């Protein structure tokens, strides 16, 4: 791609355009998605977008004037930076799946009000077509609650589910261990850009504390996924965005510790609304507020009851 100079503008691809747009300060997923949908439905080439002035961007894609101005002004200045990022992504075997692509997980597109315009994937992207299961707990779960979740994951893995989890909390490490110990597959969702976590694409593993190390030749597969721009650091709110993506990918969510009125309760409520099956595994009972907002939630006494419920 060469956004910086017109002489190579025909080399612009959808992927390189996305990287360039996400490099412009103040341009969010909504604007990138509007442009991607326009490219898909209006016979607009990526190179055409680079050449558009603010008025054309506004009219063609329905952008606000401020966004159109940022894009028209910003694309020429970020071109060389975007080219370098595309090279780094290719060198690291990172694929970019844009919304509207056949390979983009449709479950995620349907589950979120504002799904990522692009997801960056390193590893076994075919995992996105498998049924996935996630643990959806609030912070501060007891050891007993964490063990109940691990046991439930083990039962689900035996039923053919892949695990989808985060990468930088002990609870996420629990989920990854449950998958690895059974030679199963694990998808990690990052709360930052995929190029900011060197271990995500280096093969060194995402848990430097060394409790997890997986032989590359072991059974199962890995996928590292980010819905953030490639070099975006973790910022306020990005952990909630990550958790929303995890639940957007999962067809089943297990909960063993949810704080009433908290973020995880809100995310589970949204997940239930779009058809995610939610199981509460003891100890204890789910909060009354969670039951009220997720009427189809199934409370199970132990992980042994999960397999019949999964069907």
Query: Helicity range of the residues?
Result: 40-55%
Total of DSSP H or I helical runs spanning 4+ residues: 13
Cα gyration radius (Å): 21 Å
Which blocks of ≥5 consecutive residues have pLDDT under 50?
Answer: 1-10
| Spatial strand order of the main sheet | 1-2-6-5-4-3-7-8-9
What is the count of distinct domains?
2
Would you give the CATH topology of the largest domain? Rossmann fold
The shape is elongated
Strand and helix order? HHHHHEHEEHEHEHEHEHEHEH
Number of beta strands: 9
- How far do the termini sit from each other? 48 Å
Beta-strand proportion: 5-15%
Q: Kindly name the structural category.
A: alpha/beta
Largest sheet: 9 strands, mixed
CATH architecture of the largest domain: 3-Layer(aba) Sandwich
Question: Can you give me a brief rundown of this structure?
Answer:
43% of the residues lie in helices and 13% in strands. The protein has helices at residues 14-22, 29-41, 46-51, 54-61, 65-91, 106-111, 143-158, 170-180, 199-202, 238-249, 263-273, 288-293, 306-310; strands spanning 94-98, 118-123, 132-135, 162-165, 186-190, 222-226, 252-255, 277-281, 298-300.
């Amino acid at each position: 791609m060469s956004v910086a100079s017109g002489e190579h503008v025909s080399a612009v691809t959808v992927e390189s355009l996305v990287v360039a747009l996400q490099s412009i300060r103040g341009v969010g997923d909504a604007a990138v998605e509007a442009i991607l949908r326009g490219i898909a439905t209006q016979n607009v080439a990526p190179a055409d977008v680079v050449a558009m002035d603010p008025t054309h961007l506004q009219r063609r894609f329905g952008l606000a004037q401020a966004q159109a101005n940022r894009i028209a002004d910003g694309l020429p200045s970020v071109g060389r930076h975007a080219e370098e990022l595309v090279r780094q992504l290719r060198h690291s075997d990172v694929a970019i799946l844009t919304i509207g692509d056949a390979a983009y997980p449709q479950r995620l597109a349907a589950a979120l009000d504002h799904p990522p315009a692009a997801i960056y994937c390193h590893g076994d992207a075919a995992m996105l077509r498998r049924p996935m299961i996630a643990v959806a707990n609030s912070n501060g779960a007891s050891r007993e609650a964490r063990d109940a979740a691990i046991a439930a994951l083990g039962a689900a893995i035996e039923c053919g589910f892949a695990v989808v989890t985060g990468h930088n909390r002990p609870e996420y490490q629990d989920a990854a261990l449950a998958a690895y110990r059974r030679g199963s597959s694990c998808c990690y969702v990052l709360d930052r850009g995929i190029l900011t976590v060197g271990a995500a694409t280096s093969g060194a593993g995402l848990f430097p504390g060394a409790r997890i190390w997986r032989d590359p030749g072991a059974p199962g597969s890995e996928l590292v996924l980010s819905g953030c721009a490639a070099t975006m650091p973790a910022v306020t709110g990005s952990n909630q965005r990550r958790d929303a993506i995890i639940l957007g990918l999962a067809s089943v969510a297990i909960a063993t510790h949810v704080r009433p009125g908290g973020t995880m309760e809100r995310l589970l409520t949204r997940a239930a609304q779009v058809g995610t099956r939610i199981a509460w595994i003891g100890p204890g009972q789910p909060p009354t507020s969670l039951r009220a907002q997720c009427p189809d939630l199934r409370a199970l006494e132990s992980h042994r009851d999960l397999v019949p419920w999964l069907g």
